[in-house]
Amino acid sequence: MAYAKGKQAYGICDISGFRYKLKDMKRTWDGLLVGPDQWNAKHPQLEPRRHTTDPEALFNPRPDKAEDGGNGFIVISSPSITKNFSMLPNTIPSKFELAKLSSDLGSVSVVENDNSISETLGSQLITAYLGTVTVSGNITESVSVTGQAGTSAIGSPTVSADTVYTVTVASYLGGNRYYIDGVVYPTLNLSEGETYRFDQSDSSNSGHPLRFSTTSDGSHGGGSEYTTGVTTNGTPGSSGAYTQITVAVGAPTLYYYCTNHSGMGGQANTP
Questions:
Q1: For residues 208 and 135, what is the distance between their CA atoms, to the nearest angstrom?
Q2: What is the pLDDT of residue 124?
Q3: In the chain, what are the domains?
Q4: Residues 6+ apart with CB under 8 A from 157
C-alpha cells in the first residue's frame, strides 16, 4: 500500500500535545514522536557503563622476607591465651613480641639452648595483668625484657642467661691440657654476677675434675680450692657433668685447674 509523503502534513507531539509539521518532528529513544523543542538525547545514566572488578592480585609479586631466614615474628594479641603459656626451643624465632595484650597472660617462659641466639621479649600496650616473665638457657649475646605503656600490673621479669663452655682434654706440648670451646687453656674473662658453666660431659674429661683457685695451678701451686659461688654436678667424662660458677662481686682473679694433674689449666679474669 502506498503512503502520502506528508510534506504538508501536521503531527501532534506525544509529550506537549502541540501541533508541529510532521517533517520537523523527531522520534525519541523510547519511541515517542515529539516536536523539535521536546526532543532530548538519551541520558547517559539510563545506560550505565558495564561494571568491571578492579584487579587486586599482583603479578609476580616480591613480598618482604624475614631477616633471620623466614622465622619473622610471633605476635600474640589474642585475649584467649591461657595462663602459664610456655614456648620451648625451636618454637620461637630470634625475636618474640607480646603486642597489645588486653587480658590476663599469666607467666611467660622462654627457654633457649642455643648459646648463639639473641632473645628479645617486648610487652607493648599491656592493658591487664602480665605475670612473671622468665628467660633462661644458654644465651650469650643479648637478653632483654621490657614492658612499655603498661596500664595495669606486670609481674617480676626474671632473666637467667648462663654461658656454657665445652671442656675437653687433649695432649699439648707433651702433657694434657684443658681445651675450652676448642682453644687450649685460654685466658677467660668472667663478669661479676654472671653464671658460667664448664661442661665436662666429654669422655676426655674422665679423671680431670675442673676446679677454681686464687693461686695459679691451684693446689699444685701451693693454693687451695676456691668455692664461692661454685657448684658441681656428676662425674667428669659422663653425661651431665659440669662445674658451674656464679662470679661474686669483688671476686679476685681466678685460675681453673685439674685437681688430679698439674699444668692443665689457665687464668680466669674477673673484671
A1: 32
A2: 42
A3: 10-41 (no CATH), 75-161 (no CATH), 163-269 (2.60.40)
A4: 121, 132, 133, 134, 135, 145, 147
What is residue 108's predicted lDDT score, i.e. its pLDDT?
52
Residues in the chain: 271
| Cell 628479645 sits on residue | 120
Place of cell 666429654: 202
pLDDT digits (tens, 9 = 90+) for 147-180: 444 445 555 555 555 799 999 999 998 899 999 9
Question: What is the reported pLDDT for 32?
Answer: 92
Q: Quote the pLDDT of residue 34.
A: 92
Which residue matches cell numbers 595483668? 129
Q: Which of 53, 43, 33, 110 is nearest to 76 (CA)?
A: 110
Q: In sequence order, what are the residues at sequence separation of 6 or more whose Cβ sits closer than 8 angstroms to the Cβ of residue 18?
A: 12, 35
pTM beyond 0.70: the answer is no
- Non-local (6+) Cβ contacts of 147 within 8 A are 123, 126, 130, 154, 157
pLDDT along the chain (271 residues), means of 10: 80 91 90 91 81 75 61 46 47 45 49 44 45 50 47 51 89 93 94 93 96 94 94 95 94 95 94 82
**Nearest CA among 138, 177, 182, 178 for reference residue 160:** 138
